[in-house]
Design goal:
With 328 residues, the chain is α/β, with parallel strands linked by helices. It folds into two domains: 156 residues, Medium-chain alcohol dehydrogenases, catalytic domain (Quinone Oxidoreductase, Chain A, domain 1), CATH 3.90.180.10; 141 residues, 3-Layer(aba) Sandwich (Rossmann fold). The protein has ten helices and 15 strands. Strands 3, 4, 5, 6, 7, 14 and 15 form a seven-stranded mixed beta sheet that branches. It has a six-stranded parallel beta sheet with strand order 10-9-8-11-12-13, with helices on both faces. Helix 3 crosses helix 9. The chain is globular, with a radius of gyration of 20 Å. The two termini are 17 Å apart. Bound molecules: NADP nicotinamide-adenine-dinucleotide phosphate (NAP). The site of NADP nicotinamide-adenine-dinucleotide phosphate has 32 residues, from helix 1, helix 3, helix 4, strand 9 and helix 7.
């Protein structure tokens, strides 16, 4: 089968389009013929080597997320059968052969049914982004219906799904994006208010826009840039979840005292298995009953995965980036 494989750590050029043997499912594993795979910033960090959460053995086929059809099952699998439409979320799977490939094998626990109303490219947008959005909102911030959440960086893979999940449970949602196109997508996802984080002083209107009720929860996609300023708008006893961060900052810890606020780290890699599986059951249900409708942005052919790795870091987000593996 065709796959993207890397034989060394390094820049995007280490990703090669090659022929590899088809993986075979063992006990409690399934094989999925993939139509699309999700591209996540984490896969670029892993590609460079030294990523704190995951350092694969080489050669390595990247990718944790995808969607397609079950084409083989191993002994002991009863929940799924060949022909089922599914999405793959294999971040925490014991075995995961990589979704940047025509077929992937992973634990059955990493594979969930995709309703007919959700396309394969939308299914590939779930995995890491959906489990991260769920974990940040519910397992870390413990957000409640009626609270106000700022999704600081809402136009990308994690942000758009976080907006949808927060709206679904009855939160008031403010999102930010850096382009007009991104702003439209955040609105389409149901945000009550959308601000442009590329414009100077864009948060100045936040108090009046929230009728001076303030913000209870912030999901932060770029903490090194925004964390200190977030405290201006956070309510007493508020929670900030650090989802994304690309550097360090000069920060005054006194800010946390004044508001008895919590700064909570979040990494899907740390999720206890029961919480991770719980999030996937909730995601599967939200897809089925209309609570989640992933928005796909750029679709890039599998063989151009190296371009996808450059663009996911360098270009503005306009929905979730996916790799097209086979036309559905
Ligand atoms: N902790 C975890 O377990 C976990 C899981 C998944 C992702 N992440 C991290 O979370 C971040 C987002 O992931 P993703 O998959 O959504 O990536 P993505 O699809 O590339 O989206 C990046 C998001 O960050 C926004 N952004 C850019 N500048 C910003 C600023 N100054 N303030 C606030 N937001 C800003 C982008 O907005 P514009 O492009 O519209 O400007 C976009 O919404 C990445 O750093 C990723 O590594 C962490």
């Amino acid at each position: 089968m065709k796959a993207i494989q890397m034989s060394s750590f390094g820049g995007a050029e280490v990703l090669k389009y090659v022929d590899v043997e088809e993986p075979v499912p063992n006990e409690n594993e399934v094989r999925v013929k993939l139509y699309y795979a999700g591209v996540n910033p984490a896969e670029t960090y892993i590609r460079q080597g030294g990523y704190a959460f995951f350092e694969p053995e080489l050669p390595y086929i990247p990718g944790f997320d995808g969607a397609g059809i079950v084409d083989a099952i191993g002994p002991g699998v009863t929940r799924l059968k060949p022909g089922d439409r599914v999405f793959v979320a294999s971040t925490l799977a014991r075995r995961k052969t990589g979704t940047y490939a025509e077929k992937v094998v992973c634990d059955v626990d990493a594979v969930y049914l995709l309703p007919e109303s959700i396309s394969f490219e939308q299914g590939a947008a779930l995995g890491i982004p959906a489990t991260a959005a769920y974990r940040a909102l519910f397992h870390r911030a413990r957000i409640k219906p009626g609270e106000t959440v700022l999704i600081h960086g809402a136009s990308g893979g994690v942000g758009l799904l976080a907006v949808q999940l927060a709206k679904y449970i009855g939160a008031n949602v403010i999102g930010t994006a850096g382009t007009e196109e991104g702003i439209e997508l955040v609105k389409q996802s149901g945000a009550d208010i959308v601000l442009n984080h590329s414009v100077a002083n864009y948060l100045d209107t936040l108090p009046s826009l929230t009728h001076f009720k303030g913000i209870d929860v912030i999901l932060e996609m770029l903490a090194n840039v925004n964390l200190e300023q977030d405290f201006t708008y956070l309510n007493k006893f508020g929670r900030i979840v650090v989802v994304g961060n690309r550097g360090s900052l000069d920060f005054n810890p006194r800010l946390t005292m004044a508001k008895e606020a919590d700064i909570l780290g979040m990494a899907v890699w740390n999720a206890p298995v029961h919480e991770y599986n719980e999030s996937l059951v909730a995601i599967e249900a939200a897809l089925k009953n209309g609570g989640l409708k992933p928005i796909v942005g750029k679709i890039i052919p599998l063989k151009e995965a190296s371009r996808a790795h450059i663009e996911i870091i360098e270009s503005k987000a306009k929905g979730k980036m996916v790799l097209e593996i086979t036309k559905s």
